[in-house]
Amino acid sequence: MTLVLTDVVLTYPDGDHTLTALDHVSLAVAAGEFAAVVGPSGSGKSSLLAVAATLITPDAGTVVITGQDVSRAGRTARTNVRRDHIGIVFQQANLLPSLTTLDQLLVMAHLAGQSPRTASVRARELLLAVDLGGKEHKRPHQLSGGERQRVNIARALMNGPEVLLVDEPTSALDHHRGEQIISLLAELTRNNGLATVMVTHDLATLAMVDTVLTMSDGSLTEGAATQVV
Ligand SMILES: Nc1ncnc2c1ncn2[C@@H]1O[C@H](COP(=O)(O)OP(=O)(O)OP(=O)(O)O)[C@@H](O)[C@H]1O
After folding, report:
1. Longest Cα–Cα distance in the chain
2. Which candidate, 83, 194, 217, 218, has a CA 20 to 30 Å from the CA of 113?
3. Which domain does 176 fall in, by range?
């Protein structure tokens, strides 16, 4: 298994009390598996992604990424694991306004210390894979919302991650463009052997994933609940 969370507990301070955002959550996602997490607002979905992304250290439990236990790792070790093994796609593309499509990807490679030549070849391959061939020199304002989200996805894959974490990738898109993005994520997951976890409110897209998990009051269960939004 590429991504394994075991018995994870995460609490936030809440006045005199604590709020349990993740209540003994376990999750295992294999290479090439596309898992979706659904559940009501406030149920803990973003907290789950943040723990899997090593952005938040849980109070208890373990997070193992490509065999490496990062649950108690220090800040630098977590940053390195995130840079080398995890791709993150947020709701909004968060592209740098002044950079071209190609440069958005090359910045990531530069931060990871890749040689410019290798990076350029990989960036062009990825842009073709997300169907953005010919748009290498466009800036974000010259792209559609769907195209921006595809740049975002290509950028997340630039450093060859094994784990892809995706937070509501279709929320800024119409239904058709949203379906195209999910279908692209499914294809990239299979072709690159990624362990992908996607938080979504879009139930229509669940037919395209391998596993559906439901978060409810901090607990994660397999399968889709009837009431998820
Ligand atoms: N930084 C924080 N400090 C305190 N409480 C927080 C913090 N972040 C989230 N929470 C609380 O933890 C619970 C889980 O929040 P989380 O954002 O993980 O839910 P979610 O399922 O992603 O919600 P949504 O679908 O609305 O994005 C909620 O009760 C929320 O209010």
Report:
1. 56
2. 194
3. 3-93+161-222
**Residue at 22 is within a domain:** yes
Q: Best substitution site from 45, 49, 168, 228 to test ligand 1's pocket, by max atoms within 8 Å of Cβ? A: 45
Residue with the nearest Cα to atom 30 of ligand 1?
42
144 belongs to a structural domain: no
- Residue 60 maps to a domain: yes
Centroid of ligand 1 to alpha carbon of 43 (angstroms): 7
Question: What is the CATH classification number for the domain harbouring 217?
Answer: 3.40.50.300
User: Which residues line the pocket of ligand 1, CB cutoff 6 A?
Assistant: 12, 19, 21, 39, 41-47
Confidence of residue 229 (pLDDT cuts 50, 70, 90): very low
**With 60 as the cut, is the pLDDT of residue 62 above it?**
yes
pTM of the model: 0.93
Task: Report the distance separating Cα 74 and Cα 17, nearest Å.
Answer: 27
| pLDDT tens figures, 110-146 | 988 889 999 999 999 999 999 999 999 999 999 999 9
Closest residue (by CA) to atom 14 of ligand 1?
Answer: 44
The listed range with the strongest mean pLDDT (91-95, 201-205, 213-217, 222-226) is 213-217
Count up the domains in the chain and report the number.
1
Q: How far is CA 162 from CA 30, 83, 92, 196, 219, in A?
A: 10, 11, 22, 9, 25
> Over 60: is that where the pLDDT of 184 sits?
yes
Separation in Å, CA 212 to CA 103, 124, 126, 130, 137? 35, 33, 27, 24, 37
